[in-house]
Amino acid sequence: MSTYYFDNMATTPLYDEVIECIYREMKTTFANPSSVYRIAQRSKLKLQNAREFIARYIHAESRELFFSSCASESNNWAIKIALENNSDRNHIITTTIEHPSVLNTIKEYENNGYDVTYLSVDNNGYIDINELQNCVSNNTALISVMFVNNEIGTIQDIKKIAEIAKEYGCVFHSDAVQAIKYFDIDVKELGVDLMSFSAHKANAPKGIGALYANKRLHIKPMIFGGSQERSQRAGTENLYSIIGFHKALEIISARKEEIIAETKEKQAYFINRVLNEIDDVILNGDDKYRHPANCHFSFKNVSGESLLLLLDMNGICASSGSACGSGSLKISHVVEALGIDEEYKNGSIRFSIDEHTTYEEIDYVVETTKKEVEKLRGV
Ligand code: PLP
């Protein structure tokens, strides 16, 4: 049976050029970048080139970019850095729709005495800037608001939030995991202090993340040990994945506008077909201003989990929430936060495409989804 991969916000397949590049480097660049002999210089150079390129990609300085094992680690680290930099304050502001790697980390600090405000969102997933303005104070150590939501594709006004954070001396962290491929990220222009990234959302390997930390911040180590990552995160670097991350971003930068345009066109086609051809379905998130890959629907009177299983039996990979949350029958915290009608919210499914998704694949997915939704409704 063919596979129809419509879960690109969970992870992306590696570009062929990335696989070829990693394979080549595995043979030639095996030396430890911390070693002193000549062949290690090649490893060191590859690491340095990757750091410089990725830093430029987000308009940061290379000394402001740290590699980590994943974005979950970057989020944990960012929150720790922020709270240590504002250690005389004990209030945190975040949102109800953050990734669990932010929410659960903040929960841990809350259990240890921090006061936390969870900003609510409207039914498109936007926070209310007035609500933020009303709760921020000179006691707020950290504001953590994601750039793009991983379930419904909502894009927050990061620049505005950064201005508010600055006014009150709060450290501002943004989880930009879902933004890396399709958005122009200029950390200076946006005014963020900390930003988290993951390579596997941009056709690069899993197990490699990055953290941007503004040079004015005092960084405390995430892992104690050797002198890697300027002594802030010990451990021999995941060099091949870092090289793959670099390669993938080079490919994306070279044709970013086309990638965005192609994906958006396919997204519009997919969304329109679903809304026009399947009864009683709503699109979640903003209908125009959304992540180009994201198509998140709620089907009335349908069990999302049953629909996912039926889609899988037809070769279709989709998701009922974030990958980390699936496997449970619980409705995702993001869907809960949107305040969707009871009869719709159980039937929430995220499809996420990419520039390689074909119109034939979309046609198959729309037609199969319609057939299986009707079967579940007993039509
Ligand atoms: N933040 C967001 C918004 C995500 O979508 C994800 C992954 O799905 C993560 C963080 C965690 O990334 P990683 O898998 O690299 O830990």
Any overview of this molecule?
- 43% of the residues lie in helices and 14% in strands.
- By secondary structure, the chain is an alpha/beta fold.
- The chain has a seven-stranded mixed β-sheet, sandwiched between helices. A three-stranded antiparallel β-sheet has the order 9-10-12. A two-stranded parallel sheet has the order 1-11.
- Helix 4 (100-111) links the parallel strand 3 (91-95) and strand 4.
- The structure holds pyridoxal-5'-phosphate.
- Residues 70-72, 99, 101, 146, 150, 175, 177-178, 198, 209, 322-323 line the site of pyridoxal-5'-phosphate.
Largest sheet: 7 strands, mixed
Structural class determined from secondary elements: alpha/beta
- What proportion strand? 5-15%
Number of helices: 14
Chemical compounds bound to the protein? pyridoxal-5'-phosphate
Give the spatial strand order of the biggest sheet: 2-8-7-6-5-3-4
Gyration radius over CA: 21 Å
Multimer state? single chain
**Topology as H/E string?**
EHHEHEHEHEHEHEEHHHEEHEHHEH
Count of individual beta strands: 12
Q: What is the 3D form?
A: globular
